[in-house]
Design a protein that fits this description.
Helix content: 10-25%
Number of helices: 2
Number of strands: 7
Structural class: alpha+beta
Strand content: 15-25%
Order of helices and strands: HHEEEEEEE
C-alpha cells in the first residue's frame, strides 16, 4: 500500500476543525454559569407558585364577572340561615295519680270483674285481669282487693277500707268480717 501524502492543512481548515469543538465548549460553560445563576434566583423566591406574586385585589374583575357563568354576572352572596334554637325537651311531669275506688267485685261464669269509680271524672268502669287503665295493668281481682301494676309500681285497692274498730262478727276461721259503710241507708250493722 502506498501512502499518499496530503498537503498540510491551511489556516482556515484548521480553524474549522478546531473551532467547532471550541464553540461547543464555550456554549456548555455558558449554560452551566446560567444554571448557577438560576439557583440563586430560586433562593430569592421560595414559593414555586407563579401566581403568588399577583396581588389578589387586582383580580376583582374575575370575581365580579366570572368567565364560566353564561350571564357573566356576580353570583349572589350565600345566605346564611340562622341556627334554629334547640328547644329544651319538656320536663316530664309526674303522672297523675290514679284515683280509683273499688266499688265491688262481680263474679260471673266468664271470670271475676271489678267495678271501679274514677274519682277524677266520676266515671265507672268494669275491669278484668289483664285489662289496661291509664297505663296501669290489672294484675289480679279477688273478693278483697284489686291489684294494679305500672312499670314495677304496684297499687292495691281494697274492697273495703279497714277501720280501727272492727264492726262485724268473727268468722269461724278467726278473721274479722268487715261490713260496708252504708251511710244513709238506715240499716244497722
Amino acid at each position: 500500500m502506498m501512502w499518499k501524502l496530503r498537503p498540510a492543512p491551511s489556516r482556515q481548515s484548521r480553524l474549522r476543525l478546531h473551532g467547532v469543538p471550541l464553540l461547543l465548549a464555550a456554549g456548555l460553560c455558558t449554560g452551566i454559569v446560567a444554571a448557577g445563576g438560576g439557583a440563586a434566583a430560586q433562593t430569592q423566591n421560595p414559593n414555586p407558585n407563579p401566581l403568588s406574586g399577583i396581588d389578589p385585589a387586582s383580580l376583582t374583575g374575575f370575581r365580579d364577572r366570572p368567565l364560566f357563568s353564561p350571564s357573566r354576572t356576580r353570583p349572589p352572596d350565600p345566605v346564611t340561615e340562622p341556627i334554629p334554637e334547640v328547644a329544651e325537651p319538656p320536663t316530664e311531669q309526674p303522672p297523675e295519680p290514679v284515683t280509683l275506688q273499688l266499688l265491688g267485685v262481680i263474679g260471673t261464669p266468664e271470670g271475676v270483674s271489678a267495678l271501679v269509680r274514677d274519682e277524677s271524672d266520676d266515671t265507672r268502669h268494669v275491669l278484668r285481669t289483664g285489662d289496661l287503665f291509664r297505663g296501669w295493668a290489672v294484675v289480679s281481682v279477688d273478693g278483697r282487693e284489686m291489684v294494679l301494676d305500672k312499670d314495677g309500681e304496684t297499687m292495691r285497692l281494697p274492697t273495703f277500707k279497714p277501720s280501727e274498730e272492727a264492726t262485724g262478727e268473727e268468722t269461724p276461721n278467726g278473721e274479722t268480717q268487715l261490713m260496708p259503710d252504708l251511710e244513709g241507708s238506715g240499716a244497722a250493722p
